[in-house]
Design brief:
heterodimer; A: alpha/beta; Alpha-Beta Plaits; 8-stranded mixed β-sheet; B: Immunoglobulin-like; Immunoglobulin-like; 7-stranded mixed β-sheet; transport (chain B); Vacuolar protein sorting-associated protein 26 (chain B); Arrestin-like_C (chain B)
């Protein structure tokens, strides 16, 4: 493929032979892969400064040109840059690269990509890198890779070999598949498995020897074969498949691994990496272009590409390594990415398997199976190889004789041998796969004949007689192959009307009505004539009557196409019905033969939109529709979409879609349409990126689709509803990508979905059904696209569609919605929206009539409800519109209130906090709002109700906390009734404590909270405050466990010291007497503890509290108190304790306290009112 | 004079052979005259000078004495132009349809090598030379030197081609044939009369196909009829077998036919030549199904020899028929089917023997003939 670029194309150093590595493709840009490079480069040509194409082996850094020994104009600059690059490489790896233009360093090669990039696309720096071939590690296959040639000598061992082939291809790379007993098979073995493999071979008594000792070495050898155009093919080059190891840069990777890598890296670094798919290669692989850019425009770009040659395993590896280096090691060298846009073309990585015949060889290979044994018409598997070998040997002999005769210029004899050779193609015994191999072998030989004839007849000898002569062949198959071969020469010599000859050839081929033979014959015709079609516009002066014009070319291909299609379809009806499955598989394998016709049509440059619309498409569609074969229709319709450019699809949508409605009922129309929509949408996006309107305004793309989808739905009442919905999904995607501003279109789609659902009378859709999944997809699309719940509210039908899902479905969508809103911080700003949104989220908010009562994982449930709780914080009206916010909260309250006892503990608290926040806001703007006091009151009432609801739900601790919180909030916001409200809250809390909390630990915890809250409350008058305080003390001493009592009393003591009342105007109470009382009591309780450890611990704590209050200046506490306690611990308690961790802890605790006291004693404070620590006895 | 020559002369004289002579017939313009290949009885081919009807035969007869100096006595010298038909089953009974005699010399003596001019002016040559299985038609010149005991005779065979002008009526052959409910086809050959270098162009349109056809071929059959009355001998020979279709078509397919006749060994059609024999040609369209059953339809074509050679123009495939002609509405002809293994079909050198058909005849082996007006079936047992 690297000889396929349209710059001095085919001027030498390339081969016309399709199987050669240097095949030129028959025409410049005949291969879709090279066209992809072309289109991509042209798209970025003005910013691209460097084009790199990476190849392997040679250690060369090559510049253009390849077609001539002359140097490009900017060779000096090119050389300079190359020298600098190579110096770096030498510095790092010590390798020496040879620099120079390809022709001068290596050999003439015309039409390679770098020549084109420079000469054709005008990129100033274009290089070919031939990577190093020796080195320590990295790019070579490790030398331990060995290839074994194995021969199974009996059935058992052969089966073993087949088993290995089928199941262990991860470690054994079969270069040739095991064919039969006594046939040799080549296997490349991972070094680690070498011993196992040899053991197996010995066990089963298989004959083997090491065929290639060092694979690496062989590859280098075979590399040399590339230079001469007609290099004999080695087994090495022919073997299908590449090694299959994961991508780790120490070994070589296959295509899926590379794609996996590409997708992975694109997903991980979305900001840096973008991947665009450019359609599919002939082998059906995606062809991604990877772009690394930090954004921005006007930057220089570097375009790199690797793997254009088959079997240069290292090149893709290098490219992927480079990608990884740039992206994952971005931090190490940001300048490379920040200043330059990188483009990587990974399309070529699959070229290893590409054959000129553009059909899936490997597919054919896999299609061969035991089923052959059952087939009556063809021979069983074992015989296939024998038959094929026999046929191939005849071909070989006859071809040799043909060539000898040609050398002796005995044309008649040569033709006779050719005819005998071609007679092998008359067989009915071969499977498609074997037939294909035979066909390929014969095609190669026919090339020789053609070349000879061309030489011979270009010098004025008349071809007409020859054209007649070959028609004397009695058998039709050899006759027609020869006729085509001679016909091609006839055309090339320009002796006869090109148009007439083409027409004649394609007509005469009708004589072969056998599907397999006919398909291959016509494929041969198509291949031979690929560059000879009169691809000239009708008004072109060169398009004479006899030369023909593009119409003739189109007619030619179309006729060939429809005949091939008929043959292909006919295959389905031949033979026994029990073989149907096998036949279908074979047909799948052969489909590319038919599809190639369409590819050729698409390659005709002179087909303009008008012609496509009037002739090409209707012709194809007529054939497709009339063949009434689901398999063919589905493939061909997709083929049309893929091979023709997007622009023409836009113009012919009506026609195309109309045809879709007429397809066979088994055809998965939705797949086709989805592909089409997808493609057009991508096109629209690309156009947009180029600054064009996505879709030409005169084409109402969306309407067309939506109408036609309706028609199709009507035309095929039996179509499964999920397919219908998947069509709608693609419609939505289209709307997003091509009409981003028209939100009503999306709604329209949803509406029509609803209608469709009505039609099939589906009330509730099972989430796990196919339809449910599709609906789910449909609904998620707008969610993920808009990333805004609020925008969704503009789609009135969204909710309605949502309602059609069953509970699980709705819940899943709702979760998605919530997550989406949270991720994107979508704020909901009006009450209406709140209602609407929460309606959508209903399955998460309250019980649903259709709810399934299966036990749900409590954790999941909590997770779910936590999401909802977070959601509440998104309810935020405009800063200034507090009333709105209030209304929103009440609305939300109503909805969440319905959630039942299980849900409200999660949802109401955030709501309450939001309400508190709102009250504070009112307070902040009190100057502006006269009614603020009233509103605050209302809010607190609202909160009270909420908490009451929680109480009703038989919760205790949570409402207790909320009550306390409410009291605090009320106390901070000073409005008329806030004291009453606060008191109310506190009293509720106390009531709750008394009535509901019975567990001692909970009691202690609650009491701690209450005490703390009370300490903070400053709005109470003495009248309210005193009873609460004493109640607290009472409750503390009423606790069950002594230590709890003790500690609670300590806490309560604080109330008398630092809490405040309205009368005190914020000053602390400083009731030292009460404090001492509390502490005494606490001390008493502590001494009542029986366990000396606990007692000691409590007393140590008590000491600290005493010290605290003493320090605060409580007159009622004296040094004596402290001394007493210290000595009590020291003398009484500690000695009782055994040595243990506990004791040590207590000692340390006490020690620290003493240390502090000592410090205070020894460094008396200078302030006058500080208490004196003199007299503290510490030792 | 060498010793050997002396001895030879003496011996000849001694044994009394007398004078002998060599006779050569030299035709005027022999160097430039065209020749034609004519098959001999043993299957070989020889090149003969070619003459046409009405052409004059002029030339010289050279008589070379073997022994110069000795005289040759004779009873007269004559030259004859003869056209004769020889039936192999009736050897020795040649039928001369043309016989012209010219006296070259009266009885007398020849002393020197002598040369005589002869001239048959505008000789009628009504038939073409032909060498068949049972019959041979030849023209020749015969010079006879009449002598007392044994005449000296020299014969020279000539090739004669009869040329025809372009036939005025040359309609195409078009016919619908079939076997009820299993196979209906319509075929068309562009002409009914073809010259020997002509190309048969035609097409076959499948109207109904319910059998599994394996392939289809066109055979050119030569039928030589000799004798008359009860003693009629028919000899069929397949001159060419030409596969025109591979595989099984379906309804609506049309298959092109193009057969170049120039490559085959053909003669013009001869009808009732001198009431002795006829040579006729037939195109036999044969369909072979997967059970090796053969269906065929024969159509006679007339072959003629065209005068001047005109550069052939390229023959292109016919435009396929899009609709079958319904002109002859119900004139659906019946196919012949060969129920039993056909051994009579002569095989060409190269074509492998494909018989016998394994399938013995099923009951419906002879299809119902809906209209047998033109049905020709000669391939009988």
């Amino acid at each position: 493929m690297n000889r396929n670029f349209d710059f001095h194309w085919d001027e030498g150093g390339s081969s016309d032979l399709p199987c050669a590595e240097t095949y030129n493709g028959g025409a410049a840009f005949s291969e879709i892969e090279s066209r992809v490079i072309r289109d991509t480069i042209l798209g970025i040509a003005n910013q691209t400064v460097v084009y790199l194409t990476v190849h392997s082996y040679g250690q060369y850094w090559l510049t253009p040109w390849g077609y001539t020994a002359e140097l490009p104009a900017n060779y000096d600059q090119l050389y300079d840059l190359a020298v600098r690059a190579v110096d770096k490489l030498t510095a790092v790896y010590g390798t020496q690269y040879t620099i120079g233009s390809s022709t001068n360093v290596l050999y003439v090669n015309t039409g390679p990509s770098d020549d084109w990039a420079m000469g054709g696309a005008g990129i100033p720096y274009a290089y070919t890198l031939e990577l190093r071939d020796t080195g320590k590690y990295g790019f070579e296959l490790p030398a331990e890779y060995q290839v074994y040639q194995v021969k199974a000598k009996d059935r058992v061992s052969f089966d073993v070999l087949v088993k290995l082939y089928n199941e262990r291809s991860d470690v054994y790379d079969f270069w040739t598949e095991p064919r039969n007993i006594d046939f040799t098979t080549d296997v490349m073995v991972l070094p680690a498995f070498k011993k196992t493999f040899v053991d197996v071979l010995n066990t089963f008594n298989m004959e083997y020897h090491i065929k290639i000792d060092d694979v690496q070495h062989e590859i280098e050898l075979s590399r040399r074969d590339i230079a001469p155009p007609l290099a004999p093919k080695k087994a090495l080059q022919r073997s299908p498949g590449t090694p299959r190891y994961s991508l780790d840069w120490t070994s070589y990777s296959d295509l899926p691994a590379i794609y996996e890598f590409v997708n992975e890296i694109a997903a991980t670094y979305p900001n840096l990496v973008t991947v665009t798919s450019t359609g599919q290669s002939y082998l059906g692989n995606d062809m991604p272009i990877l772009k690394i850019s930090t954004g921005g425009s006007g930057k220089n770009a570097i375009f790199a590409e690797g793997g254009i040659h088959a079997r240069e395993w290292i090149s893709p590896a290098f490219v992927t390594w480079l990608i990884r280096e740039l992206v994952e090691n971005y931090a190490a060298h940001p300048q490379y990415v920040d200043n330059i846009d990188w483009y990587f073309d990974l399309t070529k990585c699959n070229s290893a398997k590409k054959l000129h015949n553009v059909f899936n060889f490997t597919g054919l290979a896999s299609g061969c199976s035991d089923d052959w044994a059952k087939s009556g018409s063809m021979s069983p598997l074992e015989d296939q190889d024998k038959l094929l070998d026999e046929a191939l040997s005849v071909v070989k002999v006859q071809a040799l004789q043909m060539k000898r005769c040609l050398d002796k210029r005995k044309l008649m004899d040569a033709l006779k041998h050719a005819s005998t050779m071609l007679g092998e193609l008359r067989t009915s015994l071969l499977s498609p796969k074997s037939y294909y191999e035979l066909y390929m072998a014969i095609c190669d030989e026919l090339q020789h004949l053609e070349m000879y004839l061309l030489d011979e007849f270009q010098n004025g000898r008349k071809v007409a007689d020859l054209y007649e002569l070959v028609q004397y062949a009695g058998n039709i198959i050899p006759r027609l192959y020869l006729l085509v071969t001679v016909g091609v020469v006839y055309i090339k010599t320009n002796e006869q009307s090109r148009r007439d000859i083409l027409r004649d050839l394609v007509e005469m081929c009708r004589g072969v009505q056998h599907p397999l033979r006919g398909l291959f014959l016509r494929n041969y015709l198509l291949q031979c004539t690929r560059n000879l079609l009169p691809d000239l516009a009708e008004n072109d002066p060169l398009a004479t009557e006899s030369y023909g014009n593009v119409r003739d070319a189109v007619d030619f291909i179309q006729l060939n196409f429809s005949e091939m299609n008929k043959l292909w379809v006919r295959m389905a009806y031949q033979g026994h019905s029990r073989d149907k499955e096998r036949r279908e598989r074979e047909r799948q394998e052969l489909r590319l033969l038919v599809g190639t016709n369409l590819v050729r049509l698409a390659q005709l440059d002179s087909v303009d939109v008008e012609l496509y619309k009037k002739v090409v498409l209707p012709g194809i569609l007529e054939q497709v529709v009339s063949c009434r074969d689901a398999l063919a229709q589905e493939y061909l319709m997709e083929c049309i979409i893929q091979v023709f450019p997007d622009e023409v699809h836009l113009d012919t949508l009506h026609t195309y879609l109309k045809a879709c409605a007429e397809l066979h009922t088994d055809v998965k129309v939705h797949v086709i349409l989805v592909a089409l929509v997808e493609r057009l949408a991508a096109y629209g996006q690309r156009q947009q990126a180029l600054g064009q309107p996505p879709i030409p305004p005169h084409i109402p793309l969306f309407d067309i689709f939506s109408d036609q989808i309706g028609n199709i739905a009507q035309a095929r009442p039996e179509m499964p509803s999920e397919n219908l919905v998947s069509l709608q999904v693609s419609l939505i995607s289209l709307a997003f990508r091509c009409y981003p501003e028209k939100i009503n279109l999306v709604d329209k789609v949803l509406e029509s979905t609803l209608v469709a659902l009505d039609k099939i009378a589906v009330e509730k859709v099972d989430f796990d059904s196919a339809l449910g999944k599709e609906l789910n997809r449909l609904l998620r699309m707008p969610i993920s696209h808009y990333n805004s719940l609020v925008t969704l509210l503009q789609l009135p039908h969204f909710g309605q569609v949502l309602q059609r899902l069953d509970f699980n479905g709705r819940k899943s969508v709702a979760l998605h919605l919530v997550n989406n809103a949270l991720d994107n911080e979508t704020y909901i700003t009006t009450q209406e929206h709140v209602d609407a949104v929460l309606n959508m989220l209903a399955p998460l908010i309250c019980d649903q009539p259709d709810q399934v009562l299966t036990g749900q994982d409590a954790e999941d449930f909590a997770e779910e409800q936590n999401l909802m709780a977070r959601m509440i914080h998104l309810l935020a009206a405009e800063e200034t519109d507090l009333d709105q916010q209030y209304r929103m909260l009440t609305s939300a309250r109503k909805q969440f209130g319905a959630g039942g006892a299980r849900r409200i503990p999660f949802t109401l608290p955030p709501l309450i906090y939001e309400a508190f926040k709102l009250a504070r806001k009112y307070f902040d703007v009190r100057q502006e709002d006269e009614l603020w006091e009233k509103k605050c009151e209302k809010i607190f009432t609202f909160c009270h109700q909420c908490i009451a609801a929680l109480v009703k739900a038989e919760l205790a601790e949570l409402p207790l906390r909320l009550f306390l919180q409410g009291a605090l909030a009320a106390s901070q916001i000073i409005f008329g009734t806030h004291e009453t409200l606060a008191y109310e809250f506190i009293s509720q809390a106390f009531t709750l404590y008394e009535e509901e909390i019975s567990d001692s630990k909970a009691q202690f915890a609650a009491l701690t909270l209450m005490a703390a809250s009370l300490e903070k409350l400053d709005c109470f008058s003495e009248e309210n405050s005193a009873p609460v305080r004493s109640k607290c003390a009472l409750l503390a001493s009423a606790l069950l466990r002594k230590p709890d009592q003790c500690r609670a009393l300590i806490l309560v003591s604080n109330l008398f010291w630092s809490s405040t009342t309205k009368e005190l105007e914020g000053k602390p109470m400083r009731d030292g007497k009460k404090v001492l009382e509390c502490l005494r009591k606490a001390g008493k309780v502590a001494t009542e503890c029986l366990d000396p450890g606990v007692q000691a611990q409590l007393i140590v704590e008590l000491i600290n509290v005493y010290v605290h209050f003493f320090h605060q200046g409580n007159q009622h506490i004296t040094v004596t108190h402290i001394n007493e306690l210290i000595s009590k611990v020291r003398q009484d308690l500690l000695p009782q304790l055994e040595n243990s961790d506990e004791k040590e802890l207590i000692e340390r605790h006490l020690g620290a306290s003493c240390e502090m006291l000592r410090h205070r004693r020894d460094n008396p404070s200078t302030t006058s009112d500080a208490p004196s620590y003199q007299g503290i006895i510490l030792d | 004079m060498s010793w050997e020559t002396c001895w030879e002369r003496a011996a000849m004289s001694f044994f009394g052979f007398g004078q002998s002579a060599e006779i050569d017939i030299i035709l005027d313009g022999a160097a430039t005259r065209r020749t034609a290949e004519v098959k001999t009885e043993d299957g070989k081919k020889e090149r003969l000078f070619l003459f046409f009807d009405g052409e004059s035969l002029t030339g010289k007869v050279n008589i070379t004495l073997k022994r110069p100096g000795y005289k040759l006595e004779h009873q007269g010298i004559k030259i004859e132009f003869l056209g004769q038909i020889e039936l192999y089953y009736d050897r020795g009974n040649q039928h001369e349809f043309t016989s012209l005699v010219k006296e070259l010399a009266r009885p007398g003596e020849l002393h020197h090598n002598t040369s005589y001019d002869f001239d048959f002016n505008q000789v009628e040559k009504p038939y073409e030379v032909y060498t068949g299985t049972n019959v041979k038609l030849r023209y020749f010149l015969r010079v006879t030197v009449v002598r007392r005991l044994t005449d000296l005779v020299k014969e020279v065979d000539l090739a004669v081609h009869t040329l025809s002008s372009y036939p005025e009526m040359n309609s195409s052959i078009k016919m619908e044939v079939g076997i009820e409910d299993s196979l209906h086809i319509e075929f068309e050959y562009n002409k009914s009369k073809y010259h020997l270098k002509d190309v048969i162009v035609g097409k076959i349109y499948f109207l109904l196909v319910r059998i599994k056809i394996r392939h289809m071929e066109i055979a050119i059959i030569r039928r030589e009829t000799t004798g008359s009355g009860p003693n009629v001998f028919n000899e069929n020979e397949t001159i060419a077998k030409y596969e025109i279709m591979d595989g099984s078509p379906v309804r609506g397919e049309s298959i092109p036919i193009r057969v170049f006749l120039a490559g085959y060994d053909l003669t013009p059609t001869m009808r009732d030549i001198n009431k002795k024999f006829s040579v006729r040609y037939y195109l036999n369209l044969v369909l072979v199904d997967e059970e090796e059953r053969r269906y065929f339809k024969q159509q006679e074509i007339t072959l003629w020899r065209k005068g001047d050679r005109i550069r052939k123009s390229l023959q292109m495939a016919p435009v396929p028929v899009t609709t079958p002609t319904n002109g002859e509405s119900d004139q659906v002809q019946a196919f012949e089917k060969i129920p039993t293994p056909v051994n009579e079909e002569p095989s060409l050198e190269n074509s492998p023997t494909e018989e016998p058909a394994p399938n013995p005849a099923p009951s419906e082996e002879i299809p119902r003939v809906e209209s047998s007006a033109e049905g020709v079936s000669t391939e009988d047992a």
